[in-house]
Amino acid sequence: MVNAVKSYAFSSDAAALILGPNDRNLSYLEGLMCTDLIVKGTSVAASPAPLYFTSFMERLEKAALERGSLSESEILMEFQLMMQPEAIAYSDDGPVSISVADKLIRAKSQSQRELIRALGRSEVVFASGPAGTGKTFLSVLWALSEVLKGHKKKLILTRPVVEAGETLGFLPGDLQQKLSPYLRPLYDAMEYALNVKQIARLEENGALEIAPLAYMRGRSVNNAIMILDEAQNATASQIRMFLTRLGEDSQAIVTGDPGQSDLPSGSGLEYSASLLYGIKGVSVIRFSQADIVRSRIVRDIVAAYAKGRADDARSERTI
Predict the structure, then answer these.
(1) Of 59, 117, 195, 255, which one has the greatest count of Cβ atoms within 10 A?
(2) What's the rounded Cα separation, in Å, for the pair 7 and 57?
(3) Does 299 have pLDDT greater than 70?
(4) Quick one: 71 and 218 in the same domain?
(5) In this predicted structure, what is the pLDDT of residue 84?
(6) Same domain, yes or no, for 73 and 124?
(7) How many other CB atoms sit within 10 Å of the CB of residue 36?
(8) pTM reported for the whole predicted model
(9) How far apart are the first and last CA of the chain?
């Protein structure tokens, strides 16, 4: 259902943030709402105008002014939240955010909101779902924030090194240099808040530690946050080993994408999350394709691969 024409007047600051340089977001907004948009100064007119036009513009203006910028993926997420029933509770409750260094990171989806709340209340948190949903990014920044505020003494980052069979001796350099290619995405998240020298200082004073998953065996970790990333490449017994390292005042975060496992014998991520779901102190947050905020193209790629797998499965059943 549509009205003939409707216009909305942004504040000058909001108009620049929402429309982008040279109005580059205009065509994306037109495609999203299936309408033509005309810009006059800081006003935008839609013809024909969907019934939600004004409320969507108000939502975008509020988000842009709060964040100081608005990308295509953030515009898409605001549109999805508006169209979903849970969006009402989301907007009424206000934003959920992580404060680290001089950055304030706000949740961009309902699942991100649930993850941040889980990180604040649970000793063990599973975050699983497709690439681009922000599960690793938020987990790393949460842990970094806790260390910088003095709530935790150390952040331990680990990944299963499947490609090298967890035997890293043939790679050049010390342990940190051997692991750097595998942990690069975790460093990328930290570099959003800190510069390279600040991260190096955390490593030097022992507040940041990196280790392959196999090296965690036999340890007892106290007053720290442990993050196991790419957990779809860990077996159930490896995840059990990781979680049982938890000592006093520690937290374990397990992230991964069940659809990208490199293990021929199968991943232990979903098994472990399902097995432990319901235990007090354990939270399981599952992201979906609708939560992808990295970019529009990533969302489309993930959806295409998911459709391809579903089509292949149907073909096998008919043979």
Answers:
(1) 255
(2) 10
(3) no
(4) no
(5) 60
(6) no
(7) 13
(8) 0.68
(9) 44
